[in-house]
Amino acid sequence: MATNWLPFWMLILSWCCHLLPGDTFRAFVLAENVRLDLTTANGYQWQTSLPNGSLTVAGHVPGGIYTDLERADILQDGPLLYRFNDGNYRWIAYNDWNYALDFDVDPLLVNQPGVFLVLHGVDTVAQIRLNGFFLGETDNMFVRYRFNVRNLLKAEGNQLRVELRSPVTVSRNRYEEQLMDYIVPPRCVPPEYQGECHANFIRKMQASFSWDWGPAFPSMGLWKAVSLETYEALTLRDVYVATSLNGTNWQVDLRLYCETIDIGVSHSGTWTVRLVDNNGVLIHEMVADSLLTGNGDREATAQYQLKIAAAQIEPWMPNGYGNPTLYNLLVSYAANGKVAVTKEMRIGFRTVVLVEDDLQTGGRTFYLQVNDVPIFLKGSNWIPADVLPELVTTEYIRDLLTSCVDANMNSLRVWGGGIYELDAFYQIADELGILIWQDFMFACSMYPTTSWFLESVSVEVVQQVRRLQYHPSVVLWAGNNENEAALRGNWYGTIGNFDLYRQDYIILYVDTIREIVRKEDPSRPFVVSSPSNGKASEEEGHIARDPYSELYGDVHHYNYYVNAWNTSSYPRPRMSTEYGFQALPSVHSWAAVSDPFNDDDWSFNGALLSNRQHHPLGNFEMELQVSSRFGLPKSNLSSRTGLLDMMYLTQMHQAQAIKTQTQHYRRHRYQLAENGAGLTMAALYWQLNDIWQAPSWASIEYGGRWKPLHYFAVDFFAPLLVILTELGDGTVAAFIHFDRRQDLVVGTLTVSIRSWDRLDPLATFSSLINQFVW
After folding, report:
1. 710, 738, 702: which is closest to 406 by C-alpha?
2. What pLDDT score does 745 carry?
3. Contact yes or no for 34/112 (Cβ under 8 A)
4. Spatial distance between the Cα atoms of 163 and 47, rounded to a whole number of angstroms
5. What is the rounded CA–CA span in Å between residue 577 and residue 276?
6. Catalytic residue selected from 259, 390, 460, 482
7. Interval 404-419: pLDDT, tens
8. Does residue 21 register a pLDDT over 50?
9. pLDDT-derived band of residue 656, with 50, 70 and 90 as boundaries?
10. From the candidates 70, 229, 421, 578, which is the catalytic residue?
11. Distance between CA atoms of residues 545 and 543, nearest Å
12. Is-catalytic flag, 482?
């Protein structure tokens, strides 16, 4: 959502109008509200230092401590991702760091009725001081913090101080404090991760403490903008937009979430809402008077409803099912004859339903329906584009998402161990028609349910839902990644006190997160976990006996000890939202982080590859799969040639394995087994993108290079797909798959059998295709 803050002194000053990449801004004369970004790009000179003053360098906002130290040439072992630097530079995360800004402001700014310091993203635990006065603390990377500085800000000589604490130390201390009551596992990540412990005790990117596909860079800093915001009465922070089709009209429900300068004081004004198409044609306009009173949190909400003739609207549809048509929605507030604030956003008209109907064979369906059209989710899982968010650009996000569309994908699952993505991610997904399954940021851990934790999470959920809700691409909320399965499967030794951890699970995900989501966004479905059995998990007390059931919900499936090119190795679930096989990075990616003259760096059994292989037994499993399908290369795997051979073979094995599994899921969209399995409606492989150069499951390497898997995805996600499958009796069957009913055409299927030693086919079979099963 683009926020248009307008200078109040009748002049458009470029230094007050800077926004982050991906935002849009329009400035108007005769406006009241001001947002002054105290960012590096706006010319403000931040400094960062160790608390004892022994090291001081230029700081950057938005930014982080790792990139600031690298820019200042403090890090002498080379770039951050070079060789073993994830460990060599870990000392950075073990220290506290201070960010400081000395600045002046225009005297007119100081004298406004409402003056607030807003920190849009702090990573993570910090104390904030302005001119020596303690404003408060931050403890959540995903929360925006606002402080009233009306009586503290000066025209000259302001001193803003952000005192950040080591996330590693904070997490360890909180874990140890929790131990006085009972353990909240895991005790630590597996040693192969070469990471840090207790990420579940701090609300920051969980993967920044390392994962089985990524390094540990537990950063600190101001990863989003810091701004001064002034207004005479109120400002508009977020806009809730829900569209529903009622007969011949689209109904648009709006909630305008405002922040006020005071508590208990009423402010009168006028709202104007305009809906404009892409040609600038006005479709609808509403003007309404308003009287808003700030509550104890200085917040107020206005609600309105629009009705628009359906004939005027082209619905938003996902890629491959129609056009992802967007419209411009402009919301402005005026008081005393002056426009105070304007927001402009792009919205789409669509409905979404999660269908869970009972089946006579047992179980329930589980699929998403967009504008009454059942959608087979074709795509992958998204992890953060970089372990350091400040390095992510709008251009890189667009490149990755465009690669999804180029591979005929229509869906991505934003995985729950990363971040709620930048605004640009969702804006581009809206434009491209990519459906977003949005996890909340909880993954592969039990979590505390202390009052401070639940309070912080509650604010996080409210703010993130309000920020993201208006995007038509976001079609489902999920409470966590794999924590239902972890609890039922005793991943972390919880079985001895199962009822306690089950109670904590329900308190966090059901009583807290789900209840907030239902209130804040009734327009789209919510599932408590992924994988889960959907409603069946709820009926079993939210922890299903078998969260991986083929008859309900979604599954995550990994098995590296089967024939990955044989479809009998795979389940027939309602949705498959994670599955994958590892492969080595390409020679081009590996060359960027290795020493070209160090033979051990170029060995499959070398220390560098071992350092980057975070998946336990990962190299053994890749060897096993390559050996079973291709045979191991004749070259010595410890040699440079051996590593290059394994790079090729693991990538080709990965591509064929995911092709086989994906086609298996697409085939079972139309098949229902006697035991009730099948009717599969999603194939989201793990994972789309890489976070560094290492063995991983990704189809796109760090930086954007496609692996063979992504080229294969162009074909196995094609709208029209012919799938040849060997059945149990040894016969070969051909299945023709269409994504959309309207694409069905009568035709002739021809299958030829060929040999490498002759040009003519050994045999040819043809069949008229004129019957379709739905």
Report:
1. 710
2. 78
3. yes
4. 12
5. 37
6. 482
7. 999 999 999 999 999 9
8. no
9. very high
10. 578
11. 7
12. yes
